[in-house]
Amino acid sequence: MDGQKKWDLYRGASLFVLPTFSENFGLVIAEALGCGVPVITTHGAPWSELETHNCGWWHPIGQQALEDALGQALATPGRTLQEMGTRGIALVRGRYNSHRYGDEFRAMYKWLANGGSAPSCIL
Fold first, then answer.
1. Cα–Cα nearest to 33, from 15, 8, 58
2. Within-domain flag for 22
3. Which of 1, 8, 11, 44 could join 20 in a cystine, given CB atoms 3.0 to 4.6 angstroms apart?
4. Domain of 54?
5. What is the CATH number of the domain that holds 45?
6. Nearest to 84 by CA among 122, 47, 52
7. Tell me, what DSSP letter sits at residue 122?
8. Model's pTM, two decimal places?
């Protein structure tokens, strides 16, 4: 899916599920969260924030863990899912917005060009 149809599908969903063995980020997770949809994914994706921000489920890889997470999500009241979706929007806007990363990239390139102390975004 792409374009408006993709965004309409996200916004019409009550849950987004991405079981995966390996993701370097999982852009679809950020997209779903940005549309207010709680997410279920595995430890194969680097999204522990789903649990720390209470906007989804981040579980071990495997069928039983996925079944357990789906069971928990399906037993979650609709109002609670909406609240989780609101927290997901806040997470994406607060941490994964282009303005924040633009400032960090600018600081990194300035440091690379001019030297000095590394900016805080450099580990």
1. 15
2. yes
3. 44
4. 3-97
5. 3.40.50.2000
6. 52
7. -
8. 0.80
pLDDT over threshold 80, residue 83: yes
pLDDT for the residue numbered 93: 92
pLDDT tens digits for 6-41? 999 999 999 999 999 999 899 999 999 999 999 999
Q: Is residue 116 over pLDDT 90?
A: no
DSSP characters over 27-66: HHHHHHHHTT--EEEETTSS-THHHHTTSEEEE-SSHHHH
Domain count, the chain: 1
Alpha carbon distance 55, 82 (integer Å): 9
Strands 56-59 and 39-42: parallel
Name the burial class of residue 19, with classes exposed (0-12), middle (13-18) and buried (19+) by CB atoms within 10 angstroms of its CB: middle
Q: Is residue 121 included in any domain, yes or no?
A: no
**Is residue 102 included in any domain, yes or no?**
no
- 10, 32 in Cβ contact below 8 A? yes
